[in-house]
Structures are given as structure tokens and as C-alpha cells.
Amino acid sequence: MVRVPQPVANGLRTDHPVPDLPFIDDSHIPLDDPHAIQAVGRHDGSDMWGRQDRAREGRGWIAFTTDPIRHDLAWCVRYHPDHGRTVLLYRDRDASAVHAKWDAALLFRAGGYWWDGESWYRPSQVWDHASETYVRRPAPGATTITAADILTTGTGDPTKARVSKVQYVNVDDAPPERWLDDLTSWARSRSADRPLTGSVVRISAPELAGDQLLSLAEFADTVGVTASTLRSYLTRDQADIPLPQAVIGSRKLWSRPVAEEWAEQRRRSDEGLDEAVAVRRGDASQPAGITEVWTRFAQKVFEIVG
């Protein structure tokens, strides 16, 4: 399953801001040249690292570097010549994972839904062993919400916006209370060469509507496990539980198709196959092969004793 770590903040020069994340000054990072980004983090004997690669699918490049001021944070950049660049700040330990997963996907939203420049797809969960790739499942009726769309319906007060420096970032801070102020300020700081109609902010889809999302108990019921089991998986970070599509307060919510595809992949997995063919013997459950050997040995023992 492709689980992309959650970013900490937007870079001020990003073309595609992630909703409800603060904007951080990225002027100390050379964002136009992937080799220069890599070079920032390439210091022998330090705890910094950087890397750049061409995108394997489509055009453009990807790069990341440990921030030279905050070595616990890293900048990740995904560039496409037609769609511009995404600039996000992550925990440094997550940078290589983000770098590996930014390929066909230009950006991620709503707990792993991803956009390739034309279409939106659900989080990659179902593995196709024949092609050795994840199955691409388009999100029906999905539309892109741009910065232009948001700022047409309402604008914030840029004088109340806050652009922080990387040295002051607190990864545990709550989302900005008035993110629209920050978005308005970011929009006014941009070059006219990149219109706001091309700045992707959100995905909208019928399956992501508030009344279509599942609570943890509903998720568990949909996939056929108990709520306590699912809660245990989440607590222990087991079973590759997909990221929630929304978090309201402390309440996590998932789209039904994402839950159903998690169950589908679970059935396809080695663990799922073992469970499907397991044979119960009293209170114990064993794979069929082991149970067959057990039965044969038992028969031989009784023949000898008899």
C-alpha cells in the first residue's frame, strides 16, 4: 500500500498549497534546480542528506534535501513543466519515503487520493501481482478545487496572514485558525506567470462528501472486523490501515471505497489467503496444510497404539 507521510507545512513558493497547513519561507533553498537542491543536503559526515531524480512517468523531476537550519526537517519538491511545482516541508525521516512515492502522482490530497495532472485516483492499495504495480482506481465524479475557486467565493485578510521561518516550525502545532488569510497572502505574492486557476488545493468527489464518510465503527463493520480490532491496528500501526480522508476534532473518517479496497487487498494478501483456507480445530486455527499433517500423524499414532 502506498502511504505517503503527512507534510508539516507548505513552502511559500509552492504552486499547489495543501489546505490547513502553514506557509513557511523557503527562500534559503534553491528550488529551480534539482541538482542544487540535492547539493544542499550532501555534506559528508553530517546528518543531512539530499537526492534528485527524473520522474519515471511523465515529465519533470523530484528532489529533496534536509533543511540546513533544521536538520529534523526536509524540503521535498515535485516539478512538472506544465503544472509547476509542489514544495512541502516534511519531517526529515519521511523525506526519502515521499521522494520514492512521487512519480506518476503530482500531488496527494484527502488521505492519499492522488492527481496525475488530469485525473484523480483513490489511494493505491490493491497490488496486481501480474503487472507488479498498484491498480489505478479513478475516483468517479472527482473535480479539482483550485486556489482561484476558493478565492472567488471569499477572500481573507492578508494583513493577518503569517509566514513563518523554518527555525520556528513546531510540527505539533494545530492548523492555522484562519488559513484563508494565509492563502490570500500567498496568492498575492505569486508571479502572474502561474495563474491561480492552475493551483490545485483540494479534491471534491461524491464519495468524499461528509455524509458519505465512515466512522471507525462503520469502517470496521464494512470490512468485517470488530471495532476493537481496527482500533488496535491503528494504535500499533499494523495491517496498513489507510489514512483517513478527513479528521474532525479527533474523529477519523474514511471513504467507503477506500475501506472496501483495503478489505480487498487484505483478502488478496498472504495473510488473507492463510485466513481464508485456515481450518479450526477446537479453539485453534491452523493453515490447511498444517492441519492435514497433524491429522495424518494422529492417525499413525492411533494405528500404532491400537
Structure description:
The protein has 306 residues and is α+β, with helices and mostly antiparallel strands. The protein folds into three domains: 9-204, no CATH class; 210-268, Orthogonal Bundle (Multidrug-efflux Transporter Regulator, Chain: A, Domain 2); 273-305. Helices cover 29% and strands 23% of the residues. It is built from nine helices and 19 strands. It has helices at residues 34-41, 95-101, 147-153, 179-188, 216-223, 227-236, 256-268, 270-277, 288-305; strands at residues 9-11, 23-24, 50-54, 61-66, 73-80, 84-91, 107-109, 113-115, 120-121, 127-128, 133-134, 143-146, 163-164, 200-204, 213-214, 246-248, 251-255, 279-281, 284-286. A seven-stranded mixed β-sheet has the order 3-4-5-6-1-2-13, sandwiched between helices. A three-stranded antiparallel β-sheet has the order 7-8-9, with no helix packed on it. A three-stranded antiparallel β-sheet has the order 15-17-16. α5 (216-223) crosses α6 and α7 crosses α8. The longest helix is centred in the last third of the chain and has 18 residues, at 288-305. The chain starts with 8 loop residues before the first strand and ends with a helix. Residues 272-285 have low confidence and may be disordered.
Secondary structure: elements and pairs:
Layout: E1 9-11, E2 23-24, H1 34-41, E3 50-54, E4 61-66, E5 73-80, E6 84-91, H2 95-101, E7 107-109, E8 113-115, E9 120-121, E10 127-128, E11 133-134, E12 143-146, H3 147-153, E13 163-164, H4 179-188, E14 200-204, E15 213-214, H5 216-223, H6 227-236, E16 246-248, E17 251-255, H7 256-268, H8 270-277, E18 279-281, E19 284-286, H9 288-305
Parallel strand pairs: 1-2, 2-13
Antiparallel strand pairs: 1-6, 3-4, 4-5, 5-6, 7-8, 8-9, 10-11, 12-14, 15-17, 16-17, 18-19
